[in-house]
Amino acid sequence: MNILIVEDDPRVADFLLRGLRAEGYGVQLARTGTEGLERARGGDLSLLVLDLMLPGLSGLELCQTLRAEGHHVPVLMLTAMSTLEDKVKGLRLGADDYLTKPFAFEELLARIEALMRRGREQRPKASTLQLADLVLDRERMQVTRAGRPVSLTARELAFLELLMSAPGRVYSRERILSNVWGTNEDPLTNVVDVYVRRLRSKIDDGHALALLKTVRGFGYRLDAQES
Q1: What is the pLDDT of residue 9?
Q2: Is 119 helix (H, G, I), strand (E, B) or coil?
Q3: For residue 145, which of 165, 126, 131, 164 has the smallest C-alpha distance?
C-alpha cells in the first residue's frame, strides 16, 4: 500500500514518514504542490495525504487538477484551517476526508484505514489470493500450500487473509488485533503470538521457504523473500 505525503513542514513530514513506515506502509514524500502533482500522476498510489497550504501549487489546486484528469486516488487533506467553509470547499474539489492540525497519530491511522477500506469495498475482490505456492480461495475459504490442503480455523483464515491481502506489509500486533479480533480485545493479550505459531506450523512447517516472517520490534508480514 503506497502513500504519497505532500507536506512542506519538515517536522510534520518527518513525523508522518516515520509513523507510517513503522506501520508498514510504503511512503513517498513531496515538499511542494508541483512535485506532489508530478509524483501523483506517475505513481501507483493507494492514498494521497495532502497539506492544504503548499508552495508552488496549493493542495486544493493539486486535488482539483488530479480529479479533472481522471485520477481517483483517495485524498486525505491536512490543514490548520478548521472553518466549515474551508472543509466544504476541499470536499467539493475532490478530497475524500479532512483532518485538522494538530491531530493524534491514531486518528490519522484510523482515517487512512477507513479510506483504504472504502476503496477496497468499491473494487471487486479477487476470488483467490496467492503468494508463492500458498493459495487462498476466498469463495470456498480454502487454503493450499504446494497443492496440498491446509486446514485452518475461521480465525486463522481471517488472520491469513489479512496478511495475504498485502504481501510484504508489516502488521503490528495492535493492527492485527483490531482487524481480526476487533477493537474490544485486550491489547496486552498474547493471542496474536499464539496464532502466529499456529499459522507457521500449518503453512510453513515442512517447506523450504518460510512465508510468515517476524519483524522484530514491529510485528509480522507475509512474503516470499529468502530470509
Answers
A1: 92
A2: helix
A3: 131
201 by DSSP, 3-state: which? helix
Place of cell 480461495: 137
Count of residues in the chain = 227
Q: Residue by residue, what is the 3-state secondary structure of 141-196?
A: CEEEECCEEECCCHHHHHHHHHHHCCCCCCECHHHHHHHHHCCCCCCCCCHHHHHH
CA angle 210, 45, 104 (to 5 degrees): 90
Residues 196, 149: Cα–Cα separation, whole Å: 19
Helix, strand, coil shares of the chain, percent, nearest 5, are 40, 20, 40
Distance, CA of 40 to CA of 68 (rounded, Å): 13
Residues 131, 8: Cα–Cα separation, whole Å: 38
Q: Residues 15-53: pLDDT tens digits?
A: 999 999 888 888 999 999 999 999 998 767 889 999 988
Joined grid coordinates for residue 38 = 508530478
